[in-house]
Specification:
The protein has about 150 residues and is mainly alpha-helical. It is built from 6 helices and no strands. Helix 5 packs antiparallel against helix 6. The longest helix is centred in the N-terminal third of the chain and has 26 residues.
Length: about 150
């Protein structure tokens, strides 16, 4: 039994190290990482903006489209984090260097955004407009919470 636990821990540690190594090599340079995360954020903004327009009455509310947009934001929320590699605070970016000096807080805020986006995707499948609006607002607040601290405007 002890050997199984040791082997499991060894496999887990090896997997974590391999994942870190793979993430470190996903981009040819910091500009590539910046472009990658900016592309994801652009798609998030497009989908989120479309939902906002529906909730504000700027366009007709279409439950099917809203649910698809929420699903897109949830999936897309998982993408940008890997683009925050060392050195990618320099170049054509609004990301502040504080991301790397306070990485634990940044990662926590990113996880909150991802969790809220996932909740929004689930709630968007319902007919409960109040719950949909609340989940949308929570997701928006988690975006803003990160932008306020880690993005130059």
């Amino acid at each position: 039994m002890k050997n199984k636990i040791k082997l499991s821990l060894l496999a887990l540690t090896g997997s974590a190290l391999l994942t870190a190594a793979v993430q470190a090599n996903n981009f040819k340079d910091s500009d590539d990482a910046i472009h990658y995360r900016q592309a994801a954020y652009g798609l998030i903004a497009h989908n989120f903006g479309d939902m906002a327009d529906m909730l504000k009455g700027k366009k007709p509310f279409d439950a099917k489209v809203f649910a698809q947009r929420a699903q897109n934001v949830s999936a897309l929320s998982l993408i940008p984090a890997e683009g925050f590699i060392e050195g990618s605070d320099k170049g054509d970016t609004e990301a502040l260097a504080k991301i790397w000096t306070d990485k634990a807080d940044f990662d926590s805020k990113m996880a909150t955004f991802q969790d809220n986006a996932a909740k929004l995707a689930v709630v968007a499948q319902s007919d409960d407009q109040d719950a949909i609006k609340a989940a949308f607002m929570n997701t928006g607040k988690s975006c803003k919470g990160c932008h306020d601290v880690y993005k130059a405007d």
